[in-house]
Amino acid sequence: MRVCYYDLLSVERQATGDEIKKAYRRQALIWHPDKNGDRVEIATERFALIQEAYEVLSDPQERSWYDGHRDAILKGDDHKGQRDSSAGMCSDDLMRYFSVAEYRGFNDTDQGFYTVYRHLFQKLANEEEEAYRNNPDEDEDDNHQDNRGTYTTLPSFGNSKTPFADQDGYLGYGAYVRDFYAAWTNISTRKSFQWVDKWRLSDAPNRFVRRAMEKENKKAREVAKKDYNDTIRNLAVFLRKRDPRMKAYQEEEQKRKEEAAALQKAKLLKEKQELQAQRANYQEPEWAKVDDRHLDGLLSDEEQEETGEVEESDFYCVVCDKFYKSEHQLTSHESSRKHARLAYRLKKQMMADDMDFAFDTVAANSKRRSLTIATMRIYL
To answer: In terms of C-beta density within 10 A (0-12 exposed, 13-18 middle, 19 or more buried), how is residue 99 classed?
Structure first.
């Protein structure tokens, strides 16, 4: 009988994440090999189990899976029960492999990590191929069968030297660790699971009962098939998280990303420095220089008021009581709505006062500073 992860850490099954973390640290201090010189081998095995228990229970997804299959995992091979030998490996058989106790170190020895799981997945792959041979027309759209109807062999687990991904030259599908995890984490078995049928159809007294039997048998097969698929997929995820090849690849990828980010940062800094140098050495050409004095006529009344650039001149609007630097500014101002409103009010006021303007006797070239001449310009 295997030891429960909760028992290894001495915590309740309802323990929180913080409680599990504290319990792991406490047990790790007790069973660390360096602190058990008189029983190094036992302490090493116990310490590995404690680490595995913490890794599983600290991960919400793995903990949920463990809680749902705890009894089956603890049984392992102790209680296989009676079943059809044609079924091959079932979910209960795979539960024992969710533990570091199944291998001895990450090496290629007979009991090593790579050898144990390579043999396991090779056996599973052989069973899948045999199931396909026996039922070639089942599940036509399954991902194990290509468009020509030929069977695609599932990738092997490989060994410690198997590359995780393509580096120097493509070796073909199945030659990489990435191919293995991509296939087995999305496995959809071809096994029929007819051995889980609840009823023997030949015992049906009539066709109505037979249909009911077929319906229940189909449901039982679907449940067993889903459980089998989930078990294999979770086992692949369990191994991927602990696979040294995966960890090495992630470290290389992280290093590569950091180097690429550093190069990009250096490139941007260099470009920025070059732009700053160009800006510092820039000399404006003569043709691009603009005399600010030529821009005076382009400013509006409000802009000139805000900048304080309006000075007294001969171009004066008596209606608005404002001076302008050029005739163009004055003419532009007189066409504005604001000027027209003020002029209209002034006209009404002057007409109310019954004033005589004598428009025809005023000289056209007189100065606009005169009130009479300015008013004449408004109403001519």
So the answer is: buried
Query: Which amino acid is it at 48?
Result: A
Using one digit for the tens of pLDDT, what is the confidence trace for 37-90? Answer: 888 888 888 888 888 889 889 888 888 878 887 777 776 554 444 455 556 888
Give phi and psi for 145, each to the nearest 5. -120, 125
Tokens of 37: 């010189």
109 alpha-carbon distance from chain centroid: 39
For the beta carbon of residue 245, count every other beta carbon within 10 angstroms: 23
Report all structural domains of the chain as residue ranges with CATH numbers, in order of start.
Answer: 1-81 (1.10.287.110), 102-242 (no CATH), 298-379 (no CATH)
Please, are residues 186 and 233 in contact by the beta-carbon 8 Å criterion? Answer: yes
The rounded distance, in Å, linking the Cα atoms of 19 and 5 is: 14
**CA dist 88 to 49, 96, 193, Å?**
29, 15, 10
C-beta separation of 183 from 155 below 8 A: yes
